[in-house]
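Figure 2 data, in text form.
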Amino acid sequence: MRTYFKGKVWKFGRDIDTDVIIPACYLTTIDPAELAAHCLESADPDFVTKAEDGDVIVAGDNFGCGSSREHAGLAIQGSKAPCVVAKSFSRIFFRNAVNLALPVVICPEAVDAVEKGDEIEVDVAAGTVTVPKAGKTFKATPLPEFMEKLFQAGGLVPYTQKRLAEMGRL
């Protein structure tokens, strides 16, 4: 599981909902690569074609609000920028992201310190976001302990399989 990202910032505003992340008309698959072909296309048509490996999605408050569909997390996971730094996340999107082992980082100070196209470094394991332009490294809000275990295991399914095996039930 990848936990370090270094690349360009793709900055979005507040209240980016799941329909903006992946429009409902594309929910005919759960393949992250197919969903990624339309990820955030209505908010920034360049994102799909110009994002590069290591780039990071940065957004304001309430990222992922709207429906509870997991497709939004899958679309981001399949994109070239499979890490999100935001001021805050909607509750259901945040939980879905952790269940999918999608790196989501809460760090309002870093969001305020960057603009689209700036360089950013996110070390999910260390819980830091570095903004070279500002010459600063910010500390992100840590995941609650039980969610950290899910994320480190690779998501809810691998975590559950591991726990069942430990209990001799698998």
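Caption note: The mean pLDDT is 96.
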